[in-house]
From TrEMBL:
Its EC number is 2.3.1.-. The keyword Transferase applies. This is GNAT family N-acetyltransferase. InterPro entries: Acyl_CoA_acyltransferase (IPR016181), GNAT_dom (IPR000182). Keywords: Acyltransferase, Transferase. The keyword Secreted does not apply. Pfam families: Acetyltransf_1. Transmembrane segments: none annotated. Residues 61-142 form the N-acetyltransferase domain. One of its GO terms (molecular function) is acyltransferase activity. SUPFAM superfamilies: Acyl-CoA N-acyltransferases (Nat). It is an enzyme of class 2 (transferase).
């Protein structure tokens, strides 16, 4: 997977980010209770960062395979404290989920973050009802850091999860792992998903 930084002020980069976002309707339904239009998605992508973070702290990345956008990640460097890399968004297109692309994106961004002065740990918030995301982040070595809290703009509680930046990658892309070592989660439709 090729990972590059996006400039959401450029129409081409914004369109690529929008394509990934719109291809994950379960995220919009879970997070916001409704599907979103392209205009609302564009605003969500550019305004999703904490209001008191600076533009220099707000970074968006796109992971592509064969020039097809597949993974979108947004991070805030050094926010809310100088040692934190905040993960505000991590989406994988519907057709390529459960292929360890999100694991690869986290690994690539972790390697990059090791070069940023002072960054020691990841931090993200995951809705309590999002069983798949909670399983994924557990699979990726994140631990619950604080009790659930309701975040601005959301209608339910979210868990704060953290992981050291220098932690060794938990996931090896499924290579060498039997199914018994993979994280399993049962989703609302009753199917078991394996990461």
């Amino acid at each position: 997977m090729h990972v590059h930084r996006l400039n959401l002020q450029l129409n081409e980069d914004l369109a690529a980010a929008r394509a990934v976002y719109l291809d994950v309707p379960a995220y919009a339904l879970s997070a916001f209770g409704a599907l979103r239009s392209a205009e609302v998605v564009d605003k969500a992508l550019t305004d999703a960062f904490p209001a008191d973070s600076t533009p220099e702290q707000r970074l968006s990345f796109l992971g592509c395979n064969k020039d097809q956008p597949q993974v979108l990640a947004q991070v805030v460097v050094g926010f809310p404290t100088p040692d934190v890399l905040g993960l505000t968004l991590l989406l994988v297109r519907q057709g390529v989920q459960r292929r360890h692309l999100a694991c690869e994106m986290l690994d690539r961004l972790s390697r990059q973050a090791r070069r940023w002065p002072g960054i020691q740990r990841w931090r993200t918030f995951v809705l309590e009802s999002n069983a798949a995301a909670n399983a994924f982040f557990g699979h990726s070595g994140f631990m619950v850091a604080t009790p659930p809290q309701v975040l601005r703009g959301f209608h339910e509680g979210a868990r704060c999860l953290e992981r050291p930046i220098k932690a060794r990658p938990v996931c090896r892309g499924g290579h060498g792992q039997g199914i018994s070592h993979a994280a399993r989660v049962t989703v609302p439709d009753g199917r078991v998903r394996v990461w």
